[in-house]
Amino acid sequence: MNNFFKTILATSAAICLSGMAHAADIKANIQGMSFSPAAITVSVGDTVTFTNLDGAPHTATAADGSFTTATLRKGKSETITFKTDGSFDFFCKIHPGMKGTIIVQ
Ligand SMILES: [Cu+2]
Questions:
Q1: Distance of CA 21 to CAs 7, 14, 25, 45, 46, Å?
Q2: In angstroms, what is the span from residue 105 Cα to ligand 1's centroid?
Q3: Distance from the CA of 31 to the center of ligand 1, in angstroms?
Q4: What's the pTM value of the predicted model, to 2 decimals?
Q5: Cys-Cys with 66: which of 58, 61, 62, 85 at CB 3.0–4.6 Å?
Q6: Alpha carbon 18 to chain centroid distance?
């Protein structure tokens, strides 16, 4: 790699880091047929990574349709980015009794 591309890469990384400074990734497990935690508060721009620890497949799907994970099998994760504020109820499409709420502020 020549120095020109090294400079471009370093600059890109710096811009990326400064832009991401306040974004957090919140971990949410799906375990024992429930979301843990079931109530999650994040800031606009944050991500939530859902990881299914159950043998049963699950999704995390917004009641208003604004987001959904794929069907997550055991050990699989998916990360959702929250770009708008509000309160978002979510559930598992396969087990609709599993519920949670994400508050984006
Ligand atoms: Cu489920």
A1: 21, 11, 11, 10, 10
A2: 27
A3: 9
A4: 0.79
A5: 62
A6: 21
pLDDT at site 22: 77
pLDDT at 75 over 60: yes
Tell how far the Cα of 1 is from the centroid of ligand 1, in angstroms. Answer: 47
61 residue type, one letter? T
- pLDDT class of 18 with cuts at 50, 70, 90: low
Which run of H or E residues covers position 92?
none
SS3 content of the chain, % helix, strand, coil (to 5): 15, 40, 45
